[in-house]
Specification:
The chain has no helices and 11 strands. It is mainly β and about 110 residues long. The structure holds FE2/S2 (inorganic) cluster.
Length: about 110
């Protein structure tokens, strides 16, 4: 599911990603990890910088997601790697349009 409007892509319905959970979605050919933190949505590059694990399939604890492959942990709000804050996973802007979650992916 995807539609483009000034680089905003609909990736799912709000109900598809309930609070405390993440989803792996695709927009503009990019794998994106979408998270719902108490009703606020955040998006990171979905490919873990360690060895390419699927961050969108990681478990959330508070604002921290843990990569399901080897346990690297990132703040879903900022993309900061928890063991070395200088390593930051790219983030994407997220907005809600009606019941749709949209992510902005610049070309
Ligand atoms: S691939 Fe994510 S921790 Fe190794």
């Amino acid at each position: 599911m995807s539609s483009s409007d000034d680089n905003w892509f609909t990736v799912c319905k709000t109900s598809d990603c309930p609070p405390g959970e993440g989803r792996e979605v695709v927009a503009a050919g990019r794998l994106i990890a979408l998270f719902n933190l108490d009703g606020a949505y955040f998006a990171l590059d979905g490919v873990c910088p360690h060895q390419g694990g699927p961050l969108g399939k990681g478990a959330m604890q508070g604002c921290i997601v843990t990569c399901p492959w080897h346990g690297w942990q990132f703040d879903v709000r900022s993309g900061e790697f928890q063991l070395r804050k200088t390593l930051v996973q790219p983030t994407f802007d997220v907005r809600i349009d009606g019941g749709d979650v949209q992510v902005r992916v610049k070309p």
